[in-house]
Amino acid sequence: MNRILIIGSGGSGKSTLARQLGGLLQLPVVHLDAHFWNPNWVPKPDKEWDELVQQYTEQEQWIIDGNYSRTMESRIKRAEVIIFLDLPRLLCMYRIVKRRLMYHNQTRPDMNEGCPEKLDWAFVKWVWNYKSRSRQSTIARLQQAGPHQQVITVTTRVQVKELLRSLAGGGPAL
Description:
The protein is of the alpha/beta class and 174 residues long.
């Protein structure tokens, strides 16, 4: 297992799981948020972003966390394992509020410097509406995965822990 993609709603735990798996499997971790956002929350231009994502996905080993639907297909094609964190909406909402409080006036470890943690109405709406806006298209993309790819859908915190325990023991994923 050399290329793992982790996707899901904001607050679902993508970056945390990526860090944990990176440590367990000794794979480099790429937090897309840290590369998409320039200081002061300025997004990268599309062309620059597309080239950067391509550079990362062409590597032989990686764990990439993040959605960014416009480039998701290219990451899905290269991934050997795709983990979809399909966790409850209220848990994700709780986590984004908790994260905001934990990193008040600070930049999270999975973000670019100059992007202090914030919680604005647009992001709250984005997380709240993830299931109705993005979930079905994500599932449709995952159904296109090839036979050489493993798609793991995780719906509870217990399943996340079981997945980590399984991988730590060298056993099969869920």
